[in-house]
Amino acid sequence: MNLDKKISMAVIRRLPRYYRYLSDLLKLGITRISSKELSSRMGITASQIRQDLNCFGGFGQQGYGYNVEYLYKEIGNILGVNEAFKIIIIGAGNMGQALANYTNFEKRGFKLIGIFDINPNLIGKKIRDVEIMHLDSLDRFVAENQVDIAILCVPYENTPAVADKVARLGVKGLWNFSPMDLKLPYDVIIENVHLSDSLMVLGYRLNEMRKSQRNKS
Amino acid sequence: MNLDKKISMAVIRRLPRYYRYLSDLLKLGITRISSKELSSRMGITASQIRQDLNCFGGFGQQGYGYNVEYLYKEIGNILGVNEAFKIIIIGAGNMGQALANYTNFEKRGFKLIGIFDINPNLIGKKIRDVEIMHLDSLDRFVAENQVDIAILCVPYENTPAVADKVARLGVKGLWNFSPMDLKLPYDVIIENVHLSDSLMVLGYRLNEMRKSQRNKS
DNA sequence: TAGATTGTTAATCGATTAACAATC
DNA sequence: TAGATTGTTAATCGATTAACAATC
């Protein structure tokens, strides 16, 4: 168990995936699983699974494998599903409202406590009991409430300014939906969701497949 | 110029990022750029930039660097921004509607031609001139129109069945928004957008930062 | 021409996979 | 106990970085 050693992002990004598969196994009523069996389900090597898990501790047992429920809970703890991170959404356009309606996030340890916009037609409206407030009241809100993460769903051109403002107010996690790489001079964790990047990669791969099929025939 | 050689996914996933930075440079009126200068803007090594670009051809000139407009267009072509991929959205809930309103996709070579749902209250409604149709008419629609990509925004439990149906109809690209790894026995390109995975990684990193700050003091 | 910067090969680094002793 | 499977070290593979000759 290589505890306190620096864990690579490659490993970290696989954790939510393990968590999902373990959740599925639980639902199927499977109580124990070997790295070999999980390997064939997930399409990665058993060796990688054992390596990954051992970054965080020895969760298995020789000759037995892993207890599904135990491993599920442990990975949940590592990912902080019981932390109840307080999140706010900035920008209540289509994407902001869509995310506000995602009840899944709650299950994974994220609690929406505020939504902000500048459109007067939206102010006062509620989404799942959370009020849409004017962006002008953000300062006071952040001062009065602990806000762990801000979800940025504002138009492209406003994103840098809003990100800067939020970071200055002391919010330490930003989830950015604009197609740009935010850089801030503060100690803030930024996670980008570049939807158009993903779609463009899909387009590229589609073309490549078609090309290779044409060459075959 | 290592043409026709297999290009790694690591390189491919960086292409849209290059494309974004070149677009920014164009807007700034910068006409030429060296790998060194681009390197400092993007925060990756100049060596990596030259390696990446040379997978697709020699776009630069010794002693000069790269012509921004030329490189922008070339990468655009590689990514297929002029292909006008025909896309449909399945599931016109919050996320489906949010994506339907994304005009950005059009600029990057994706044309929305249909939206499908099963909710009778939504059928007939239009989003940006695109009609929401009943899922029952999907078969005929795909038969009568070329559909390159289907965006899946349906509830978790319906996703596998809908994905299977769409793939059977001959759609070769799937953009999946459900938190599951789709596997299909057909030659279909699947690109997953696992929003909750991304958010959980953000939560993990936030916790790690806080831990390390606590240890310092 | 001299200076700059690419394209490309070689070296390094990190991540994945294989192997196996430890042990349940 | 014997069989199974982990935890962990060692080997391999692939991706990134460094170096430099080619050349604009």
From TrEMBL, chains A, B:
Q: Which Gene3D superfamilies match?
A: NAD(P)-binding Rossmann-like Domain, Winged helix-like DNA-binding domain superfamily/Winged helix DNA-binding domain
The answer to whether the entry has keyword Lipid biosynthesis is no
Q: List residues annotated as DNA-binding.
A: 17-56
One GO molecular-function annotation for this sequence? DNA binding
Organism domain of life: Bacteria
InterPro entries from the UniProt entry: CoA-bd (IPR003781), NAD(P)-bd_dom_sf (IPR036291), Rex_DNA-bd_C_dom (IPR009718), Tscrpt_rep_Rex (IPR022876), WH-like_DNA-bd_sf (IPR036388), WH_DNA-bd_sf (IPR036390)
Q: Where found?
A: Cytoplasm
- One CC-aspect GO term: cytoplasm
- Classification via Pfam families: CoA_binding (PF02629), Put_DNA-bind_N (PF06971)
Residues that bind NAD(+) = 91-96
One GO BP on record is: negative regulation of DNA-templated transcription
Q: Where is each CoA-binding domain found?
A: 80-181
The alphabetized UniProt keywords are: Cytoplasm, DNA-binding, NAD, Repressor, Transcription, Transcription regulation
Annotated SMART domains: CoA_binding (SM00881)
Q: Where's it mainly located?
A: cytoplasm
Q: Which family does it belong to?
A: Belongs to the transcriptional regulatory Rex family.
PANTHER family annotated for this entry?
REDOX-SENSING TRANSCRIPTIONAL REPRESSOR REX, REDOX-SENSING TRANSCRIPTIONAL REPRESSOR REX 1
Assembly: Homodimer.
Q: What does this protein do?
A: Modulates transcription in response to changes in cellular NADH/NAD(+) redox state.
The name of this protein is: Redox-sensing transcriptional repressor Rex
* Source organism of this protein record: Acetivibrio thermocellus AD2
From the UniProt record, report the name of the gene that encodes this protein: rex
